Amino acid sequence: MQFGIFDQNDHGPYPLAEQYEKRLELIEFYDRSGFRTYHMSEHHSTPLNLTPSPSVFLAAVAQRTKRIRLGALVYVLPAHHPLRLAEEICMLDHLSNGRLEVGVGRGASPHELQYFGVDPEQAPTIYVEAYNVIKQALTESEVNFSGKHFNFAGVPVEIRPLQRPHPPFWYAVPVPEGAAWPAQNKINIVCGGPVAKVREIADRYRAEWANAGNGPDDIPLIGINRFVVAADTDREAMDLGRRAWPRFHQSFMKLWKKHGTQPRFARLPEDFEVAVNNGGALAGSPATLRDKIRGMVTEAGVSYFIAQFSFGDLTQQEVLHSAGIFAREVIPAARERATASA
Known about the structure:
single chain, alpha/beta, TIM Barrel, ten-stranded parallel sheet, two-stranded antiparallel ribbon, globular
């Protein structure tokens, strides 16, 4: 069982420059505390994400950390030129000394894509072509590709990633049928949503993995992503979550409300207690979190738990306290149990 971090880097209680510096200090703490990977999102024109260029922010992260892996979850491929993004991936892999993980996706928000002049209806085919171009640029000496959206002939590739043949890829899977492609292509996955749905996705992924002729020992990571608030008592954790949640929810929903629409998959309740009751968020003392995570990962059938500690108006000290409790008192117990089970 492994543990990672997910970060929206949404609008917090600090001025922007101070938020960046505090977030880098927080990631240094994650690095020292033994979390596997720092994953960050990509969003544009929204307070949901104040680091809209993952590569720029991750370049800074790479210089402030030593062990923790890092990467976008996900790069919104229709918003990037694939050759340029492939070059950024190579640079980041070397700047991080081979610690890069590359999440790819088509983008959850049609409104953000429209701001970039991308037709959301075309995003799926743009995504597929861009992924194939990037994969070729990371593994071949030149790029040759002919498609509807991209065409390249004899483009030289002068830099290659440090990790060969390329850094590990990640894909966010919202529905079971979406697990087939990443399983067949040996791509790690992460899931949100109800635990029962995550279990369906995990089972479908393992089935597709086996059908492709792969063994069970080298299966990629199957992750579940949850908001987490850890505190000395259950009451304190719930109070922190209730206070911070409205600001995060407002940031999350701003563009959807502006356009009079709703997210297709990532429905976010307005009330923090509802998020806790439906399993989308976990809040409590170390003992409570140990029990909840033990039950959740077993029921969901996952091998990787990704925690989002920072959201809304939580202060730096509150997040450090929460993540520190989790690292000291939750992770070791979960790993001991996983070892015993194995």
